[in-house]
Amino acid sequence: MANPITTTLSAKLSGLLGFSPAVPLRRWSAGQPLVDGKVLVLGSGTGPDADADAVAALLSGSPAQPSATPDSAGTEVLDGWGLDVYRHPVPDERYAAVVLVLTGVEHPDALHEPLLAAASTLKKLARGGRVVTISRTASASDAPAVAAARQGVDAVVRTIAKESRGGATANGIVLGDGVPVTAASAVGALRFLLSTRSAFVHGQLLAVDSTAGALPADWDAPLAGRVAVVTGAARGIGAAIARTLARDGATVVAVDVPAAGEQLAAVANEVRGTALQLDITAPDAGATILEHALARHGHLDVVVHNAGITRDKLFANMTEAQWDSVIAVNIAAQLAINEALLTSGDFTDAPRIVSISSTTGLAGNRGQANYAATKGGVIGMVRATAPLLEPFGGTANAVAPGFIETEMTARMPAVTRQVARQLNSLQQGGLPVDVAEAVSFLASPQAGGVVGRTLRVCGQNVVGA
Ligand code: NAD
């Protein structure tokens, strides 16, 4: 809950520093429509308009129980989402979302038609609207013109995001070779990016690497029947992750240090899960987590490595203790826990590892060499862990938050904090729930084709953008 005194002070400080006030972002709440208004689908695909038509059919079709069974081609059999979809821009119409299907673009010249048709609609994009592109990954084996067009799309998305207003977001889905627009994770990513669950995800390209994964039986409870461990769950982002995973149907094991026992118990009770008091740097932490999950809940499916600490100091002045403690909590513990789970034989049912990185792990940050080593480490760790989970239908991915309003960032000096809030295209700090929504998406069956990636939740922070 926002403190009215600090809110007023930050507004005053923003005014003094010449910052414009941020537009409040709309977050998910029960009963909200997936998209609150008209949706424009532009673009083409292989074959005349094939991919764009398939996406339009998905968005506009009548809602029914989705089938989680892939057809013989490995693509999901899709039921529609009942949205109000248009295939051609109507002058002066206000759209809540614009979806640009660019999978068939094979030369930069071919960007003209769909992109300029979209451009004319953006002035009237609804407050909190969405722009989502669907394109293909550019690789060295592409013909140069194909690679140029595909890579160009990424930079256009980032540019549209930088120009967006009114709390609207712009993001892209980048499909790997051979992944159809109807693959479970392409569909899952589209739904995530259109919804308010992605309120603070802005200017990002989300890669869908494979056709793995499945659509959930219930989009409001994609984690039903899953048991998820969340470390550092007593407060801040970890507590929000515990609440969000539980909201999405998971049974949660909330882990934190014994000193945070009271807060931990409160979170565990709130989400009807169980609490496990544990320092994750304990040598047997992995075994303890697994024993607890198996004994209390019968299985373990999802691990969210969220616990983290900072011990900031300019690198030249850093002590061994500052360096070692951050390495121990933020990365060494995660590696050891993963190793214990992967060798246990009990983490094999489409398992998911989601680890919290940071924009510091991508770009570095003054005074945070120790933290940067660990948060960059997380990005490398998930990339190399994902292939180990693939034989079991599992994935490992990371979420890299930018500036998020928590007790950790509340300790920053007021002016630094206010400047940090403004350093992204949405000109505000994110909330713990924004990180939690991305974690829940990556933990879900509909993200099974997102493999070893790092998704930024940063409002398009300039750091490392
Ligand atoms: P926080 O300090 O509010 O909460 C961290 C939690 O981890 C605490 O409850 C703490 O007790 C627990 N923890 C610390 N060491 C532990 C250990 N050894 N064993 C078990 N639990 C332990 O932090 P937060 O802001 O909620 O951050 C959560 C994660 O997100 C961290 O990994 C952090 O690095 C990352 N992150 C935060 C931000 C931000 O802006 N707040 C930005 C980027 C990344």
Observed structural traits:
about 475 residues, alpha/beta, Rossmann fold, 6-stranded parallel sheet, binds nicotinamide-adenine-dinucleotide, SDR_fam, NAD(P)-bd_dom_sf, 3-oxoacyl-ACP reductase, KR_dom
Describe the protein in words.
With 465 residues, the protein is of the alpha/beta class. The protein has two domains: 25-208, NAD(P)-binding Rossmann-like Domain (Rossmann fold); 227-457, 3-Layer(aba) Sandwich (Rossmann fold). Helix content is 38%, strand content 15%. It is built from 14 helices and 13 strands. The strands form two sheets. It has a seven-stranded parallel beta sheet with strand order 9-8-7-10-11-12-13, with helices on both faces. Strands 2-1-3-4-5-6 form a six-stranded parallel beta sheet, sandwiched between helices. Strand 1, helix 2 and strand 2 (84-86) form a beta-alpha-beta unit. It binds nicotinamide-adenine-dinucleotide. Residues 231-232, 234-238, 256-257, 260, 279-281, 306-309, 329, 356, 358, 401, 403-404, 406-409 line the site of nicotinamide-adenine-dinucleotide. Nicotinamide-adenine-dinucleotide is lined by residues 231-232, 234-238, 256-257, 260, 279-281, 306-309, 329, 356, 358, 401, 403-404, 406-409.
